[in-house]
């Protein structure tokens, strides 16, 4: 193991590719393909400038490329290699109520409290089983094909280990397949917090009157962000109207990113699969990522070429953490 | 008008009493009663040491007192004097769920999110009409007597003005009597906020995993704090158990204060009423305070004497605010 900050995310994987090219050259072997490298040092800070660069260089530096390979992200297991073929998008929402702080002694019991309205709105979003309650939200989710379902069966994923690593006592689902399906290819809704309410330790008997609830819905094919936005707005307005509250409701989607999905039968996935089989003696897991990887979608959209995510680090590499290794 | 920081809260009222005694002396009039003054300069900082002082001096300085008059608090109207005969207590609650932050991309969709549990718990507390949903919470609330109801009829209170002053567009009730009853002599529940969730501007797609909801229930006679606590705990545990969540629930009541209520037919209220009628030519409003006034309850409990709150400032004096006046 090599230890160090960024060993697996992402200095190691960058060097792996450069070393591969160096090795071919040192051994005087013919390179089976040509390479162009894009080394991005700003990924953790939002890849500022990358999109602009891609647009500008599309007709020059990138004019003759056929495929794009990105080595970010990790395998799902500690030992079995994986190829990543999709990531969820995200739609972030703000729900705002009211406008002026009041004292709970002086107004408690006689007004429609904005935070009570907001709590009810947030409570209408998802049921205790994790099912999103917004009408229509699942309508555009791609149906699970038999071929896709089979991919999940062979994936190496230790549920108990994942539970222990995360400190989660019980998942919403009992089988590996259900867990991965709900993490990768179904939408999920998480509530992140409330701005404007009392958030410090201790107690303050305030009636917060301008509160903003924040939640996000992870997006999967073939959900459309504009449709999700409309469904959320309509749902919240409907719940709110039933409360007969004089408070003002404002719903917005300040940030969003589309999901990314590649074809596992694209030529570059076939080539990578063969290469992994040759080196590791087994087929890779075909995995997705529950998080959003904007860069994959960005390359795909701008270059209009097939993109493959080719992770080189293992699940236990501890990226962003103490004792990061590869 | 006299303007200045503390003009009405509370230098003016203190000086009013001292000036009254001075006037009797200057005019060489016989004092109808004897006075002992307690001038408290720490009220805004929690009256540190006052309770200890009262206990210590009960048998000496306070040994010969018959009645206690406190001039804090304000009239309900700008021109009509008032006597205050009660204040609500308060029971503050913490509801805690979970223990470790997780990323919504990596876990969104497969776990019971603690904040979702907490939102559901908070949403179970009060309905859109302001009615508290905790079983039994209204059981011990004193029944409204005919005599008490009549007190409310004659109170001078301009609903529209109160609405404008507070920036509230619509109250939960339409009449003066209902508003005051729900502000003074019925319990109310306010949610103050959540500790541990994302509370900053912008968005962070975190799944907060140790979150503490904070709310309080204003207490009125004859609610008992220990009973309120038990009802809240049982209600929240019942709602939580129906969610089948593996998260941990912890409910506590870190802070509480009992309500205070005086008898409006006590001799000192009768005397004050007569004095006000003599000076102002009209009977005072008999009012209560929706907030908690710990000092009134403290004097009553320790001295076991009748306490009267005798406000001297008017509703528009602007205590704690710009251009405070009396």
Outline of the structure:
Chains A, B: InterPro entries: Cyt/Met_Dipeptidase, Peptidase_M20, Peptidase_M20_dimer. The structure is a homodimer of 326-residue chains. Helices cover 33% and strands 18% of the residues of chain A.
Brief descriptors of the model:
homodimer, alpha+beta, Aminopeptidase, Alpha-Beta Plaits, 2 domains, four-stranded antiparallel sheet, three-stranded mixed sheet, 10 helices, 18% strand, metal ion binding (chains A, B), Peptidase_M20_dimer (chains A, B), metal-binding (chains A, B)
Topology:
The structure is a homodimer of 326-residue chains.
Chain A: H1 7-26, H2 50-57, E1 67-70, E2 82-87, E3 89-97, E4 102-103, H3 104-107, H4 114-123, H5 146-153, H6 159-166, H7 176-184, E5 188-195, E6 206-207, E7 211-219, H8 225-241, E8 249-257, E9 260-261, H9 267-280, E10 285-289, H10 294-303, E11 306-309
Parallel strand pairs in A: 1-11, 2-10
Antiparallel strand pairs in A: 2-9, 3-7, 3-8, 4-6, 5-7
User: How many β-strands of chain A, per DSSP?
Assistant: 11
Helix content of chain A: 25-40%
Number of domains of chain A: 2
Strand content of chain A: 15-25%
Strand order of the largest sheet of chain A: 5-7-3-8
Low-confidence stretches of chain A: none
Largest sheet of chain A: 4 strands, antiparallel
CATH superfamily grouping of the largest domain in chain A: Zn peptidases
- Indicate the CATH topology of the largest domain in chain A: Aminopeptidase
CATH class of the largest domain in chain A: Alpha Beta
The total count of helices of chain A amounts to: 10
Mean pLDDT figure of chain A: 92
Calculate Rg of chain A over CA atoms.
Answer: 23 Å
What string, H for helix and E for strand, traces the elements of chain A in order? HHEEEEHHHHHEEEHEEHEHE
How far from one another are the termini of chain A?
6 Å
Oligomer: homodimer
Given the helix and strand composition of chain A, which structural class is it? alpha+beta
From the 3D coordinates, which CATH architecture of the largest domain in chain A would you assign?
Answer: 3-Layer(aba) Sandwich
């Amino acid at each position: 193991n090599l230890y160090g900050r960024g060993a697996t995310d992402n200095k190691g994987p960058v060097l792996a590719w450069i070393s591969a090219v160096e090795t071919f050259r040192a051994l005087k072997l013919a390179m089976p393909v040509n390479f162009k490298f894009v080394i991005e040092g700003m990924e953790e800070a939002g890849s500022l400038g990358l999109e602009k660069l891609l647009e500008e260089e599309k007709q020059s530096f990138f004019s003759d490329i056929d495929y794009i390979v990105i080595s970010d992200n990790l395998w799902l297991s500690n030992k079995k290699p994986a190829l990543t073929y999709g990531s969820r998008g995200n739609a972030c929402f703000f729900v705002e109520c009211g406008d002026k702080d009041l004292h709970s002694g002086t107004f408690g019991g006689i007004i429609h409290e904005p935070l009570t309205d907001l709590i009810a709105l947030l409570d209408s979003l998802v049921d205790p089983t994790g099912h999103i309650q917004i009408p229509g939200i699942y309508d555009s989710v791609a149906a699970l094909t038999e071929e896709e379902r089979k991919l999940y069966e062979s994936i190496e994923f230790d549920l108990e280990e994942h539970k222990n690593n995360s400190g989660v006592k019980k998942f919403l689902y009992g089988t590996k397949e259900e867990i991965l399906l709900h993490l990768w290819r179904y939408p999920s809704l998480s509530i992140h917090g409330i701005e404007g309410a009392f958030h410090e330790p201790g107690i303050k008997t305030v009636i917060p009157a301008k509160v903003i609830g924040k939640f996000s819905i992870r997006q999967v094919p073939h959900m459309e962000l504009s449709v999700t936005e409309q469904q959320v707005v309509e749902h919240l307005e409907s719940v709110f109207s039933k409360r007969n509250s004089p408070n003002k409701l404002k719903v917005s989607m300040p940030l969003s990113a589309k999901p990314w999905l590649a074809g596992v039968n694209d030529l570059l996935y076939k080539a990578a699969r063969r290469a992994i089989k040759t080196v590791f003696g087994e087929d890779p897991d075909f995995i997705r990522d529950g998080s959003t990887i904007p860069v994959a979608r960005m390359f795909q959209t701008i270059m209009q070429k097939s993109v493959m995510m080719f992770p080189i680090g293992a699940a236990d590499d501890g990226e962003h953490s103490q004792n990061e290794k590869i």
